[in-house]
Known about the structure:
Structural class of chain A: alpha/beta
Largest interface: A-B, 54 and 55 residues
Shape of chain A: elongated
Mean pLDDT of chain A: 91
Oligomer: homodimer
Number of helices of chain A: 36
Largest sheet of chain A: 8 strands, mixed
Strand content of chain A: 15-25%
Amino acid sequence: MVNILGGKGANIAEMCKLGLPVPPGFTLSTSLCSDYLKVKSLSVVLKNNIKKNISKTEGVVEKTFGGSNPLLLSVRSGAPVSMPGMMETILNIGLTSKTIPHMIKMSKNEGFVYDSYRRLIMMYADVVMEKALGLNKSTQSIRKLMEKELESVKKYKGYKNDSNMKAKDWKALSNKYLRIVEKEFGIPFPDDHYDQLYGAIAAVFESWNGKRAKEYRNFEKISSSMGTAVNVQAMVFGNLGKDCGTGVAFTRNPSTGENVFFGEWLPNAQGEDVVAGIRTPHPVAGNNKKSLSVAMPEAFKELNSVRKKLENHFDDMQDIEFTIQEKKLWMLQTRRGKRTGIAAIKIATDMVKEKLITKKVAVSRIRPHQIYESLLKNIDPKDVENSLPISLGLPAGPGASCGVAVFTAEKAEELGKKNKKVILVREETSPEDIHGMHYSEGILTSRGGLTSHAALVARGWGKSCVVGCQDLIIDKSHTFAKIGDKKIKEGDLITLNGSSGDIYLGKMRLFQNPLDNTGPLSLLLSWADKIRKLKIRTNADTPDDCEKALSFGAEGVGLCRTEHMFFDEKRVHEFRKMILAEDRESRNSYLKNLLPFQTKDFYKILKKMDGMPVTVRLLDPPLHEFINIHGKEMRNLADDMGLPLKAVEERVDSLKEANPMLGHRGCRLGISYPEITSMQARAIIGAAVKLKKEGNNPKVELMIPLVSNLAEFLNQKEIILAVKNDILSKNGLNINFKIGTMIEVPRACLVAEKIAEEADFFSFGTNDLTQTTFGFSRDDTGTFFPHYFNEEIMLADPFEQIDRKGVGKLMKIAVKDARATKNKISIGICGEHGGEPNSIEFCKILGLDYVSCSPYRVPVARLAAAQVEL
Amino acid sequence: MVNILGGKGANIAEMCKLGLPVPPGFTLSTSLCSDYLKVKSLSVVLKNNIKKNISKTEGVVEKTFGGSNPLLLSVRSGAPVSMPGMMETILNIGLTSKTIPHMIKMSKNEGFVYDSYRRLIMMYADVVMEKALGLNKSTQSIRKLMEKELESVKKYKGYKNDSNMKAKDWKALSNKYLRIVEKEFGIPFPDDHYDQLYGAIAAVFESWNGKRAKEYRNFEKISSSMGTAVNVQAMVFGNLGKDCGTGVAFTRNPSTGENVFFGEWLPNAQGEDVVAGIRTPHPVAGNNKKSLSVAMPEAFKELNSVRKKLENHFDDMQDIEFTIQEKKLWMLQTRRGKRTGIAAIKIATDMVKEKLITKKVAVSRIRPHQIYESLLKNIDPKDVENSLPISLGLPAGPGASCGVAVFTAEKAEELGKKNKKVILVREETSPEDIHGMHYSEGILTSRGGLTSHAALVARGWGKSCVVGCQDLIIDKSHTFAKIGDKKIKEGDLITLNGSSGDIYLGKMRLFQNPLDNTGPLSLLLSWADKIRKLKIRTNADTPDDCEKALSFGAEGVGLCRTEHMFFDEKRVHEFRKMILAEDRESRNSYLKNLLPFQTKDFYKILKKMDGMPVTVRLLDPPLHEFINIHGKEMRNLADDMGLPLKAVEERVDSLKEANPMLGHRGCRLGISYPEITSMQARAIIGAAVKLKKEGNNPKVELMIPLVSNLAEFLNQKEIILAVKNDILSKNGLNINFKIGTMIEVPRACLVAEKIAEEADFFSFGTNDLTQTTFGFSRDDTGTFFPHYFNEEIMLADPFEQIDRKGVGKLMKIAVKDARATKNKISIGICGEHGGEPNSIEFCKILGLDYVSCSPYRVPVARLAAAQVEL
Lengths: 870, 870
């Protein structure tokens, strides 16, 4: 009943059913939240219901709310989905000038009572009066003011810790807090127990529409209509004395996944003390004499048995909160424990071994991105233990990075080109910084949020990135920055954890989990492989890429971009001459120079992928990138081509295009210059023939790019078949290969029925298809995408996740029409979406045969493809 | 039976049926052509059939083929569609060493017989032996060799004209021709009458697959499978003596359409003499003493009655050929007369008045492009009469142009910018010349055909253009050119007729037919208006455009591009400041400066179009065009904005995009800078309110550009509605207007169902939709489109004619889905296709409500829209 009771409320109810010790109370359902938000007040009916339930609670605990044996209450929010950062809690409700004397009498501990009272005042002032009612007009938060007050008392009295505070100190502080509330807000702190309770409940409802909560929901795509539940429970106290305590724990290690009880506790404390970090908490388990197992063996024994009951009941690792009041254990909360990717995988596979869950459940439980995360670079945990972050920003691009700080894109490019690892530090980034970002290991900004330019670009490129670090002040000279009193000069080493947002000074060791063949990830993926039906290929341009992808479980190459083979310095020179050739004859002679390179490349790749399909895309070079040459480079080229410099310059100029994305590329190039297609076909088929002669089993698929009608495809196919016939007549060896096309412009989808008559396979190039379907140039979205996300015009980046309603509709037309022509035509996807789980699901719905993605995404895709089947 | 008999054959048969005097004979049907082409020889069956028909003909004329009263034959091609330039004719077949003496005896005119014989030898050698059999190995054509021979005889003898040639001269020449044939081709001229006949028939069939014929069919999109028919008829002779003659005539004036008999004849001549231009022909009608009506009144009378019979029978103006042999009139051919656009319109409207045809037939008979042509610039006919073209090229871009010759694109741009009228003269053009072509009145090239770069660009831009003028030799200095011995220096005035291909030296007067309200065009269009259901609007950016379009019959404005209002020098400065503003505040202040301009513009346009719908597109500026500024201009701007030069330079740089076509434009701009949308809405609604207060009836339609999802549309709609409410609350005047969107990216079509929920109208922007559907940037197609047309990968330019299979499929989806949501939603088209007849037909099929096109295209669209209904 999570949707009605919220996560927290539902789990409390489950714990009750299990007979675990839970403080009595009740939950206000989520539907009451939307009722409240409509009228902004609690109805009479609701108030009566609350009163009824209070009296039931009073019956169980044998105390009275506002009475002489006073029942104190906690009020806590609990939405159906976890929303950290919006959770509001108010404790100790019911402490008033009337009940305080009774409490002192009952507890025989005046210090405890006034400590509890000052906590109530602070929480209530913060959550109800400042945040919900918006009473604070000053720039400083009420919480800050009150914390300062406590500090000044401690300083004045010379106390080191809160525990040094005497009863009279707490009492004086409470009175001071009451005065602060009245002064700052203009109204007094409510001294009626029901006023406190209703105020707290309304404030929790109100918090559902708070700024932070809305932002979080937007980002996580959570519906606004759910609302939050409110949990009202009798207070239990971990700070009543030495036989009390409080703690939080995970039923297994959330970082590594090891099956050990992992938690912390503090004697004589309330929950927030453990989290706040003022006192150093002790471990729950272990032999340390301060550990709960040694200090309170009975309570620990019960807690440990609760731990097992919970895991058995929920079949999952739990994150629990508990309080021990006068030796009695109370369970305050249990929930699914958050964990790192590595831990998630370890726990799931362990639980299968423990027969707690089935393999299918294990496979369905891991979020695909956790696999990706588990393969990302991380900071060595030992280095993390020994270092304190100097600040925290928003975690915008997962993974860790370490390098020298630079403050301009130019410097980043300059050093990056020299293979120096750099972290680009900027106030915010803009499209002009792109070239520098490209050369950076990591990116750190002082402004902007999770959808800022820096964040978008970094995630697009898989770069480590921390944004919106408000402590970071970059000097206008762009030679140094400051975080607090720490100075970071250009060239100083810094380390970012893009998964947490932590920023560290100095160099830290980074490591990357290898995909251990015998480890939990391999085990999990082997189960996934048995479930999934979609094949997983990889986008790989070199034998090294293939090697890596094979180790990650790729079942073929879905996209080998031949132009990437020419980025090598020696080859690029020959390639440029070919591009710039002014006539067919000289182009042919340059192509002849390139033929041996290409044949060797394809030989190696096909050998590496022996027996698996390898889709080679014919040349689709971004011409403007290849000929971005000047000065000496240009002169060398001219000399080498035996042409005047001016002629080469003119030719370079003539190749510049208004919109290169929509220009002379793909098969258009092969149609204008058939000799290029011919050379490539010769290299690919030649390599395959050589391998076949050597007893191998090459499976070649030639892919013609950017086709928008059948005639284009046929033109190129005929060139390839002519080369085939020529080679085979010389070799007398028959070789089979497929000729297919990339479907990457809308028109290709619309005439798929015709193209399928001649094509052996289709592969969706969803990057370009997204660009043309929306009319967005990916290189130019930086200027308007931030507005689009801010204004909620787009909820997901269509370059990340397939836009099902637009691009997806075209894909659907293409698949349906192509299969109508040729039932068995092989159809896959090789755009970057091929490694994104939501898109993989869509590919399955469409009935594709395979997805192809970058090597690191292959394990993610293997899991996602299995989950689609479940 | 045109498909079986060919055009010529079918019309000859019609003339027979009408009882007109036609030389007896028969027609070989088109299906025999494909039979022949399969086996490349005439079958025995066919030969027998030919013989049978010859004997029938012999019976009628009472002569014998190859006999002592010899029947001579003509063999003429005749395809089902007119194919000028491939028509082959061989006359006088049957003249052999055996029949010549009989002919001399019969005709008592040896000169006539040998003249006829030498004509036969030359035609046969040319058509059969050289072209069909390919016997000639030399570079000079046999025809040229023979013509030279005749010239040298005349020169030697001192003859001025062919008519001075004596019988013995013709005889000697015939013998010389026989020797030339044997020497050049290695085989003798056939002396058997059936050899001659079969050779001629086979050659005509063969000519169907000749190079010229194939090229013509490709260009005119005529199917290759039709084949040509062959007409075999008894010869009649216009050159038997003074009571003979031959002529060609149009039943009405083909240039002006006037209902006068318009033709030329020559006494004592064969048909080719009239066409060849060696002797100056005389008029057919009129009082001139050399006119046929005076010279042979009887024959003329009969011819004039034939003229009327033919017009009555065919209901159309005819182009006829006739021969008079010994005072007897023979009709050789009749066909639909080609005519200028102006003539076509005049003839059609006259024929309605004459009750020859109905209004519907008149409307359906005019080709829409003839309307366009009739509105193009033409050379003053008087100037044409007084000038001889210095050369002829291919007519690649209709309309005339006159200006100074320049030989580089740079010079064209330089002078063009100074408003000098220039003609760009190049060997051929390439994309680098585009900037110069833009500034040229006309374009002339020495190389390339009707689909060359120059031709494509010129037609795209509606520029006058002549290509492939082989006589034109451009000096390498690019300062002058030569045509024959005529020198054209840079700066010399030349005149082009892009509709005929004629090139003239010097300045000629150009004129443009005004759309006379009482003239034939207005009359025709008024009939069209009653038939058509599609509304015709115009694309107009200024009050002047509106004025022009109204005079052409526009029924509203379908696209008013607001960015074009800023091209004015004074405004562009303010506009640039607005674009370059770094924050909202300064942008707002610049926008305030622009508001009065805009309000005034809209006021004028709406007033001009009072009572008609005016669709105003919100700002969609090509930013890179607006900020293409340097040097002083940039400094002025910086000074004016109070910013350092570097800041402005940086901002200009930051606005540069990788693919501006797919960049920060359209509604994306309005979403990033809502203040721009707001200002424009204020100007438009403000202008409308003012007009309404003044008692006018403004009908405003605000159009949001480049929408790809509903949220974009809503974002902009809300801004507009807020402005509306603000203005109305101040004015207290209610005003209705529509808010709609341009459908110009594929995704908009795919989610039309959603967008239609909120949009009042759709307007297809088919230019951009074509670009994104194909992934073609129109600016960059110059590099590969020529290959695409050469290789027949595309048969029509999708930027000219809507690509029904791709772009059209998207449009269909959009219309269907939008209407499913909102049955009555108004849908139109405002891309350049809106004025193209084939596309207009498609719009009708789709069920659109209106098309919108440039003012000059409005009459074309009015007619095309009517024809769609017929």
